[in-house]
């Protein structure tokens, strides 16, 4: 069963997926959407060329998976994250 999201949530998921420092695990914590779900959402919401560009970027980005990250990186928040309303992660 696919979970439905409002437009603002979809926009935030897409933004987080494009951010290099935000791992898929952070998206799953906040929105309950695992990596394959993020891929499906991105494929559905983006133009195909943009989706391909995003996939190439994600495959070469070691920070998108928590287990591949450099141990020196201990957070996955962007500079603007505190200003985003309804962001559960920044309120911890």
From TrEMBL:
Superkingdom to which the source organism belongs: Bacteria
Protein's recorded name: TIGR03643 family protein
Organism ancestry: Bacteria, Pseudomonadati, Bacteroidota, Flavobacteriia, Flavobacteriales
């Amino acid at each position: 069963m696919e979970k439905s999201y409002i437009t603002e949530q979809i926009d935030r998921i897409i933004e987080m997926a494009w951010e290099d420092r935000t791992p898929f695990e952070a998206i799953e914590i906040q929105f309950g959407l695992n990596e394959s779900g993020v891929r499906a959402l991105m494929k559905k919401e983006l133009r195909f060329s943009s989706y391909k560009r995003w996939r190439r970027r994600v495959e070469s980005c070691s920070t998108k998976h928590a287990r591949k990250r450099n141990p020196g990186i201990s957070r996955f928040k962007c500079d603007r994250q505190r200003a985003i309303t309804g962001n559960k992660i920044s309120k911890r």
